[in-house]
Amino acid sequence: MDFSKIPAENIRNFSIIAHIDHGKSTLADRLLELAAVTDDRTRKDQILDSMDIERERGITIKSNSASFLYHYQDKPYLFNLIDTPGHVDFSYEVARSLAACEGVLLLIDATQGIQAQTIANFYLALEADLMILPVINKVDLPSADPDRVREQIEETLGLNPEDAVEVSGKTGFGVDNLMQKIVEYIPPPKNTEKDRLRALAYDAYFDSYRGVIMKVRIFDGVMHKDDKIRFMSSDTEYTVGELGISQIQLVPQERLKSGQVGYVVTGIKNVSDVHLGDTLTHSVNSAEKPLFKYREAKPMVFSGLFPVNGEDYALLKDAMEKLALNDPALTFEPENSEALGFGYRVGYLGLLHMEIVQERLEREFGLSLISTAPSVVYRVHLRNKDEVMEVDNPAKLPDAGLIDFIEEPYVKVTIITPSEFMGNILELLNEKRGINNSMDYLDTKTVQIVYELPLSEMIYEFYDRLKSASKGYASLDYEFSEYKKSDLVKVDILVHGNKVDALSMIVHRTQAEARGREVIKNLRGLIRKHQFQIALQAAIGGKIIARENISALRKNVTAKCYGGDITRKRKLLEKQKAGKKRMKMIGNVEIPQEAFLAVLKKNDGSSSRK
Q: Which of 61, 160, 276, 494 is most buried when burial is the number of CB atoms within 10 A of its CB?
């Protein structure tokens, strides 16, 4: 079918946005099922979650899209649905998807109500000036309370609760009614077919056979197969080899017109040639101005990523380039570590983002990797110089004598929790050097806590402790706030007298000794015994603040020496002692992969070597 024949007033471009685990992907399954895009043969749960890692974890990592027809009042409507992630680390994916839409379905769990990421996504849609249709999901559950959710929609979001649609993504209840609401509530795109071509490249991925496949939204004009098009920011030109729409599978078309969402293949082989957020136009009779640019996502957390086998360095570079194609928040630059060799310093939006990237590199590209403990970007103001250094690697922090003061990034943390856990959470926030901004009750049982918190404290076992303090009921959202001056020091970890650069960390002075002790206790449980004693030390500058020893693995050299004079045994023991002293001077300590994440783990006493 030629989808370009459907008039612009019958097109609906919308995203589903929500807090994590509120049922976006399941609802998308029901919409596609109702539109007969999937059937008994092709149906599977979370069909828009195309990666194995998404299906295993039950979360959406990459935005995905599907186009389908819906007949209402004897008219065909073309729905372009864009499913989006819910986790805070992937909010930049949501922002990119919203740029291709006129409206959103704001999904809210009928049992949990409004959560932290619900509010964050609501403001993203509001900022993009999109029509927002509230949808109350999971109304089939025994604990569902849609009336309470309607009250929250009115009081917290300021939306009309009467507009909310009740559905069950699991059973399909209310989904047909939702489809009708989409037609009535979400506005169609403007018909600008006669204008010069302007298309937004909002996403892309790499196909080993066809090269880069771009996902585009046509805002103005018409794009045909074999057209010569130009990227407005880089001024590079390509020929459209194939274009079409996505109905789970790619469906080729002869043209895409204004208002449509689809894909474009131009044979681009170099992933660095594509810039997401760029505007495509015709090479001849080009548009004068680009559409707009995304607000660039800035990495907040950095860690070192090194191949276990040094020969895989080139493969790691190629893999990083391909992942970064449709993940503009992912940054990387070469790094050399004395302990780990050549690798990359990689920037992420958060810890889950970091975990997902490493797992994708290992699964999709067959790499075996070592990741160092994450760090944040510090601003270091130097003495006698009007200069500010940005340090994302603790090993690169200048000597203390050269530093005037250090600033660290703070984030604005929003936590929504049942009020019974408020005391535990406030205690945790204060322990993490938090600054109270506000506390508001969303209803009689739910409170919203807003704090400013050092980002470095968030990446150190904060999320696990928050879940423990709230028995799993608290939800979390955060965004960058500002840099603040802090009393910070660098703690170096020495193994057998040698400084291990990959284990260095920057911490608040009041916590330095405790953190140093924790790290070396964890290391003591992770590094195997050698033929010589190994000293583990934590130091600030030249001052040792903590020490542990791993005793030598002793071989019984006198086992076969029985009877006779005691001097025979003494000679053997003296010979062994001399050999160990020689080995201690020239021996190398093997450090396992787990040791480089020991900085993150709070010691519970169980890891000590017995």
A: 61
Pairing of strands 534-540, 488-495: antiparallel
Take residue 459 and report the two structure tokens written for it. Answer: 């990446």
Whole-number pLDDT of residue 62: 47
- Measured CA to CA, the distance from residue 249 to residue 37 in angstroms comes to 10
Cα–Cα distance between 8 and 159 in angstroms, integer? 27
Confirm whether 301-371 and 490-600 share one CATH topology: yes
Burial of 22 (0-12, 13-18, 19+ CB in 10 A): buried
Q: Is 133 helix (H, G, I), strand (E, B) or coil?
A: strand
- Of the candidates 388, 358, 390, the one whose C-alpha atom is nearest the C-alpha of residue 373 is 358
Q: Is the pLDDT reported for residue 38 higher than 60?
A: no
C-alpha closest to that of 434 among 444, 443, 442, 426: 426
Q: How many CB atoms lie within 10 A of CB 607?
A: 15
Extents of the domains making up the chain: 3-185, 198-282, 301-371, 378-486, 490-600
CATH class of 198-282: mainly beta
Instruction: Give per-residue pLDDT as tens, 374-432.
Output: 888 999 998 877 788 888 888 888 888 888 899 999 999 999 898 899 999 999 999 99
The HSE-up count of residue 220 (CA atoms within 13 Å, CB side) is 16
Top mean-pLDDT range of 23-32, 77-86, 176-185, 546-555: 176-185
**CATH topology for 3-185?**
Rossmann fold (3.40.50)
d(CA 16, CA 133): 10
Three-class SS of 156-193: HHCCCHHHCEECCCCCCCCHHHHHHHHHHHCCCCCCCC
Give the residue among 118, 122, 116, 119 at the shortest CA–CA distance from 415. Answer: 116
